[in-house]
Specification:
Length: 274
Amino acid sequence: MTVNTPETFLVDGDLMSSTQSEIALVKSAERTVRILETLAASPNRLTLSELQERMGYPRSSLHALVRTLRELKWVESDESGLAFGVGPHALLSGTAYLDRDAALPHAHETLEDLRAEIGYTVHFARRDDAHVLYLASRESREAVHVVSRVGRRLPAHLTALGQALLADLTTEEVDKILPDRLEAYTEHTITEPRQLHIELAIARDRGWALEREQGTAGVACVAAPVHYRIPASDAISCSMPMAKANPDEIERVAKAVVRHTTALASTLRRHGIR
């Protein structure tokens, strides 16, 4: 009688069955992605101890994964070799995503036209669960410090872009994707779900969202969704100094943002972009 025994493999020094090794490889793949996301979200390079504290992974496997990522140039270290950040090859996948996005060329044109009309910094972003991912920006020509937000990922609840996109969901859908704790970036950030739902209801009714200093002190933002998908996945925002954010100026900017997002949505639908 022939007895079929499962194949065995050596994984991280341990002898495992084929099923166990598959589970271990999936776990390693997930940890690899989480390491990259954690490094990308940090404004500074992180040591292995700091990574371990934030992620809770065993130091041995964390060290092996970071070493492999560094060899493949997805992660790079400082001169001491003790602190790590994302490497140049991480940019390749991000650039490929932008290059393949059929909506972006049209969004770029819209941002150029909108900035020319209103004079402020404008952004195009996409909702990523409970966050927004910035895909394109055009800075105000009066900006002193030009720092592109492209590639940045911020919590949806504290940005006008995010609130405009959350407003396109039902209350139940919003509650399902939001974290239990709403992070505060400034003293003006809405951290109470009930208050956030009030703001989303207002945004739903008028067709655009407004946030004042919730994400950045001294800055107010107006945003509207681009309705070429249901629910809307993308939005355009305009950022302005709080000193200029009086009711008349906000109304002027909001009308322009809504007009341009409506035109962009029509263009994308006409080109069959979904």
